[in-house]
Amino acid sequence: MKTLVVVAHPDIENSVINRRWLNELRKYPELYTVHELYRAYPDWRIDVAREQRLIEQHDNIVLQFPIFWFSSPPLLKKWLDDVFTHGWAYGANSGYKMQNRNVALAVTAGVRAEDYAREGRYKYPLEEIFRPFELTAHYVRAKYASFFAFYGTESVTDGAVEGVNRQELERSAVDYRTFLAALN
Question: What does the pLDDT read at residue 115?
Answer without folding.
Answer: 85
